[in-house]
């Protein structure tokens, strides 16, 4: 099976890896990289045109890692340029802006775009993903909270960090964890270590909690059509209750989601004859 195993240079202790940045335009991908590599922040927005490329060297334990960074443009216009660069990556920085819900919701389609270019899930499994909830310095405009972001990331076996390219918060810690995980993966034969994905809850549970949080009314919350019968409501309720019961589900937010489902069912049943 094909893996994204990095090229080793002559010296056995040194590794060369490729990382890419992904996420909507203007979420702060270039600024995060600049903050780490150049220790500075540029407040003015300069859209990345296609791809920016840079190299940095880092030390992880006894290894010297040469990191090739491909900073992608988030604008849909550059799809044709981006799709050339997904292959052979060992690490992906997935970035969203905590003040823009659509940038968080877009993470799934970024994964979709990448998967399409990678050809198979197996290739996606040999990549370290790190999710950056960026712009946490702008506290007043925050709309995606930590629980929601962490749940999305950890349910997929991805790391989660809160970052601010502006203040520098979380940036070094995030990159250290990123490079250290990539090194672990390389030492593990190009496979993401299994421990990272054992978070104690399933992706289905995490996705359901997220869907419930974002639902627009009680029908939507239970996943039934408006005007559904008592039986349909009860059936949908039972399915969700089994999935999210606090005795069975340890995912963050499961208790609130369970309560919301109970309340939704009660209020719907009140109005159905
Ligand atoms: P594309 O290259 O178009 O895909 O955008 P990008 O994701 O690379 O965004 P970029 O890094 O260029 O940043 C976009 C804007 O957000 C700029 O005006 C930055 O100054 C600002 N910005 C980036 N990170 C932060 C942050 O952590 N906090 C604040 N307050 N602003 C930020
Ligand atoms: Mg950019």
3D structure, described in words:
This protein is of the alpha/beta class and about 270 residues long. The chain contains eleven helices and seven strands. The mean pLDDT is about 90. It folds into two domains: about 170 residues, P-loop containing nucleotide triphosphate hydrolases (Rossmann fold, 3-Layer(aba) Sandwich), CATH 3.40.50; about 70 residues, Helix Hairpins. Strands 1, 2, 3, 4, 5, 6 and 7 form a seven-stranded mixed sheet that branches. The termini are far apart. Helix 8 packs across helix 11 and helix 10 runs antiparallel to helix 11. Strand 1 and strand 2 form a beta hairpin. The longest helix has 18 residues. The site of magnesium ion (MG) has 4 residues, from helix 1. The site of guanosine-5'-triphosphate (GTP) has 25 residues, from helix 1. Pfam families: DnaJ, Ras. GO terms for molecular function: GTP binding; GTPase activity. InterPro entries: DnaJ_domain, J_dom_sf, P-loop_NTPase, Rab, Small_GTP-bd, Small_GTPase. It is found in: Nucleus. This is DnaJ heat shock protein family (Hsp40) member C27.
Question: Low-confidence runs (pLDDT<50, min 5 residues)?
Answer: none
- The level 1 CATH classification of the largest domain is Alpha Beta
User: Structural class from helices and strands?
Assistant: alpha/beta
3D shape: elongated
The number of domains: 2
CA gyration radius, whole angstroms: 21 Å
Biggest sheet overview: 7 strands, mixed
Percent of residues in helices comes to 40-55%
Total number of helices: 11
Mean of residue pLDDT values: 89
CATH H-level superfamily of the largest domain: P-loop containing nucleotide triphosphate hydrolases
Number of strands: 7
CATH architecture type of the largest domain:
3-Layer(aba) Sandwich
CATH fold annotation of the largest domain? Rossmann fold
How much strand? Answer: 15-25%
Tell me the series of helices and strands, N- to C-terminal: EEHEEHEHHHEHEHHHHH
Which ligands occur here? guanosine-5'-triphosphate, magnesium ion
The N- to C-terminal Cα distance equals 57 Å
State the oligomer.
single chain
């Amino acid at each position: 099976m094909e893996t994204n195993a990095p090229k080793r240079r002559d010296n056995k202790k040194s590794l060369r890896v490729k990382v890419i940045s992904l996420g909507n335009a203007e979420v702060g991908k270039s600024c995060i990289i600049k903050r780490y590599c150049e220790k500075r922040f540029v407040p003015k927005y300069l859209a990345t045109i296609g791809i920016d490329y840079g190299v940095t060297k880092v030390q992880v334990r006894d290894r010297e890692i040469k990191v090739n960074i491909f900073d992608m443009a988030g604008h849909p216009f550059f799809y044709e340029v981006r799709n050339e660069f997904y292959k052979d990556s060992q690490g992906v920085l997935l970035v969203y802006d905590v003040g823009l819900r659509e940038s968080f919701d877009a993470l799934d389609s970024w994964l979709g775009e990448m998967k399409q270019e990678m050809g198979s899930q197996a290739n996606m499994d040999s990549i370290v993903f790190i999710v950056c909830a960026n712009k946490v310095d702008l506290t007043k405009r925050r709309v995606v909270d930590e629980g929601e972001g962490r749940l999305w990331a950890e349910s997929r076996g991805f790391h989660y960090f809160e970052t601010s390219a502006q203040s520098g918060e979380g940036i070094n810690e995030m990159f250290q964890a990123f490079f250290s995980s990539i090194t672990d993966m390389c030492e593990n034969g190009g496979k993401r270590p299994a421990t990272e994905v054992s978070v104690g809850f399933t992706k289905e549970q995490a996705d359901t909690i997220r869907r419930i949080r974002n639902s627009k009314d009680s029908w939507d919350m239970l996943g039934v059509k408006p005007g559904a019968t008592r039986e349909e409501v009860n059936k949908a309720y039972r399915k969700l209750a089994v999935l999210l019961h606090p005795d069975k589900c340890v995912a963050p937010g499961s208790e609130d989601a369970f309560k919301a489902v109970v309340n939704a069912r009660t209020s719907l049943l009140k109005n159905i004859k």
